[in-house]
UniProtKB/TrEMBL annotation:
Keywords: Membrane, Transmembrane, Transmembrane helix. Residues 46-221 form the DUF155 domain. The keyword rRNA-binding does not apply. The lineage of its organism: Eukaryota, Fungi, Fungi incertae sedis, Mucoromycota, Glomeromycotina. This is DUF155 domain-containing protein. It comes from the Eukaryota. It comes from Glomus cerebriforme.
Length: 274
């Protein structure tokens, strides 16, 4: 997965989503830590995240492809990526060094007052989590598409055309998705960088809020719960069907045993009277 951010040369004053400056600790950082915009701002920057996301600033499409091909050929990738495993999101950014406001985002336009890499890293953390979450949302949509016929089938026919193995596989996919979202992929975690740079955490939270990450995670978990409830019902139904079949097998075995016993009694009786 990669997420590109393109430099948008436009200094027009637009309506913006901005950080609440009253809650921003260290609102004005010293000149020693935040440098003014320089010609280096025209250079591209890349941030790599350990859950499989690359955030690319100010690259052309050709440069992005070269970078991704280098990564694919370097042995870093555990396995070749399928097309379905790739999620791309694009944002624009511009510099407004005259502004007294903090970095902000509106309509996927990021406005910066400095080219300092730590500010871009802060924004990249939030956007990378958004990109990873988008992949999980796509996986959930795919699962919903594959299972949406089941309730209708049960309502119309009262029968299920899935076996235990298929239901177990779907349950495993749901569990894996929930584990990735909540435990593995750092989508919910606040990055450790803010332990040393606490003044930047409000900016990170503002970008997350703009991207509605918390709401999307909550909705994704709710959908997982609904699908899991459906699969639990299917497992119970399959279990009951299996128990019913086993019960009938036992009944027929008892019937056969009874007939065998009757046959033995009849043979003995005939022998005695013979």
């Amino acid at each position: 997965m990669d997420m590109q951010i393109e430099n948008y040369e436009n200094n027009n004053d637009i309506s913006r989503y901005f950080l609440n400056e009253e809650n921003f600790e260290g609102e004005e950082r010293s000149a020693s830590t935040i440098k003014p915009v320089t010609p280096l701002s025209n250079l591209g920057e890349v941030f790599y995240f350990d859950y499989g996301v690359i955030v690319i600033w100010n690259f052309t499409e050709e440069q992005e492809l070269l970078l991704l091909n280098d990564i694919a050929g370097s042995g870093v990738a555990v396995r070749p990526l399928r097309k379905d495993d790739i999620e791309v999101e694009t944002f624009h950014f511009q510099y407004d060094i005259e502004s007294k406001r903090q970095p902000r985002i509106f309509n996927d336009m990021i406005t910066l007052k400095t080219d300092h890499h730590i500010v871009k890293l802060t924004i990249s953390h939030a956007i990378s989590q958004c990109t990873k979450l988008s992949l999980y949302e796509w996986q959930m949509e795919n699962t919903i598409e594959r299972t949406k016929h089941i309730p209708k089938m049960l309502a119309q026919t009262g029968r299920l055309n899935l076996n235990r193995v298929q239901v177990t596989k779907l349950s495993g996919e749901m569990f894996k998705l929930r584990m990735n979202v909540n435990l593995v992929s750092n989508v919910l975690d606040t990055p450790e960088i803010f332990w040393s740079e606490p003044s930047l955490e409000p900016l990170y939270n503002a970008i997350r809020s703009y991207l509605e990450i918390s709401q999307r995670v909550k909705l994704l978990n709710e959908r997982c719960n609904i699908i899991s409830d459906l699969l639990d019902m299917l497992r119970e139904d399959i279990g009951n069907s299996n128990m019913t079949r086993i019960t009938w097998i036992i009944i027929w075995l008892i019937v056969v045993a009874v007939f065998v016993a009757i046959g033995e009694i009849a043979v003995k009786a005939l022998n005695n009277y013979g």
